[in-house]
Sequence to fold (236 residues):
Amino acid sequence: GAVVSQHPSRVICKSGTSVKIECRSLDFQATTMFWYRQFPKKSLMLMATSNEGSKATYEQGVEKDKFLINHASLTLSTLTVTSAHPEDSSFYICSARGIKGAVTSGWGNEQFFGPGTRLTVL
Amino acid sequence: AQSVAQPEDQVNVAEGNPLTVKCTYSVSGNPYLFWYVQYPNRGLQFLLKYITGDNLVKGSYGFEAEFNKSQTSFHLKKPSALVSDSALYFCAVRGTSGTYKYIFGTGTRLKVLA
Fold:
């Protein structure tokens, strides 16, 4: 399979602090990782796309200085919510696509999703 | 512009009855279509995908979907619903711009009644 993990699964922090969320591909090389935000009972909103070794590409309306994304290796991407405020409370989900061993047709077309991180800012 | 529509916010069905969750799409070129399920406070679980080939796609947990090019639809179906199928279902299309972005529908909450 293709497994993506996220850590932590749940975090509570005080307003003004920064929080880092990790996204790891456990059994494949993630050439591209995506970060989504999901509000209660709503769909997923793509925040940014990151390619390994490159700067992330942010979607319109997403503050790049507030949501710092680093994709330093083929198995790890991090999202740092800087100076978090209560309105940043949300469910953050990452996904990854990439290559696994010998590339099989179509495999890289699919995104594999992490289990999500619930952020609560007090 | 590429888009995905899930016209129903919620679908209610009795246990044992067939279920359908609707999805229509608009995309230039050949679409890559996906269905995911989400349980409370969980990430997305993959159900099935259409890339090419047979229009009827079979997926996990007894779900299937039919790709209909003329109607630009990709409805999710299951012959006999279970209470445990109650969850939030998302249809997604992969963009054709080369960025591999997904465009998600707004989601449909399925409620299976015992």
